[in-house]
From TrEMBL:
PANTHER family: PIRIN (PTHR13903:SF8), PIRIN-RELATED (PTHR13903). The keyword Isomerase does not apply. One of its GO terms (molecular function) is metal ion binding. Residues 183-276 form the Pirin C-terminal domain. This is Pirin family protein.
């Protein structure tokens, strides 16, 4: 008989809250949380879907800026078209990784691909932000796409493990990293058990689908559990799918809107630049785009 998650320390159980990104596109946000700003370098965790997208739905995210962070986009279902002001236009599909390092600034949009605009389909995925080491906050921005076929996939006991970012169980992802980072996609068949060791300085587990128990306690949908030791994982009748995130904590960061930095001055400067609608520099418009998300009131 399993217990519920109330048996876990409140400081280790992070609960999602709903966040509307516009156009009725609602995500579940786990980080930052009241209990902690980050897990390892991960400072932002959004889970979207599964959501049915119809031709009438406007789930496009218009051009907007970032500094001082890296975004990692991963889909379980659906498709998104990424465009940025470095000139990249990249379709992302399930199993692949889009990594965008903002550094000294980047602007991007995330939209329906043209061929999907008259289609009905399901979108389901995660977008995570990781902090950039303080000494690298002003590096030139970059973008990389790693196709699904290039991601290492292992069978470890009962589990099928995809090493999305970082190293685990003797495999290393080709996705670039700026600091020790761990990101795994794990699937267990029905009614199976698995031991999840500590693989990073800080680590957490987040259920995606199915039924996930940790040390005989059910992790409810929308909850993330911070780990401090090896844990016994068990799946239910429908199996279990969960992600594991972690790595080295890079210290406290200031976050406002889409900007992350170790100093308020850097955030203030980026806000002034974006509000001026620059045509040059790291926060210029995405080629082919005319819309932009305005700077919010502070």
């Amino acid at each position: 008989m399993t217990e519920n998650t109330s048996a876990f320390p409140i400081t280790d159980l992070l609960k999602a809250h709903a966040k509307d990104l516009g156009g009725g596109f609602v995500v579940r946000r786990l980080l930052p949380a009241v209990q902690r700003q980050a897990v390892g370098p991960f400072i932002f965790f959004d889970h979207f879907g599964p959501v049915t997208v119809t031709p009438a739905d406007n789930h496009d995210v218009r051009p907007h800026p970032h500094i001082g962070l890296a975004t990692i986009t991963y889909l379980f279902d659906g498709v998104i078209m990424h465009r940025d002001n470095l000139g990249y236009a990249q379709r992302i599909e399930p199993g692949a990784i889009n990594l965008m390092i903002a550094g000294n600034g980047i602007v991007h949009s995330e939209r329906k691909p043209e061929e999907q605009k008259n289609q009905t389909y399901v979108n389901h995925g995660l977008q995570l932000w990781i902090a950039v080491p303080e000494e690298m906050e002003a590096i030139n921005s970059s973008f990389s796409h790693t196709p699904a076929a290039a991601i290492p996939e292992l069978n470890i006991g009962a589990a099928q493990v995809r090493v999305l970012v970082g190293s685990a169980f003797g495999a290393t992802s080709p996705v670039p990293t700026l600091s020790p980072t761990l990101y795994l996609d794990v699937q267990l068949p029905a009614n199976s058990s698995w031991q999840l060791p500590m693989l990073a300085d800080e680590q957490a587990i987040y259920p995606i689908s199915g039924h996930t128990e940790v040390d005989d306690k059910t992790i409810e949908d929308g909850n993330m559990l911070v780990m401090h030791q090896l844990r016994a994982i068990r799946s239910g009748e429908d199996g279990a799918r969960f992600v594991v995130i972690g790595g080295k904590n890079l210290g406290k960061r200031l976050m406002w809107w889409n900007f992350v930095a170790s100093s308020k001055e850097a955030i203030d400067a980026a806000a002034v630049i974006w509000e001026s609608a620059p045509t040059e520099g790291s926060l210029k418009q995405v080629p082919g785009e005319v819309e932009r998300i305005p700077l919010p009131q502070r």
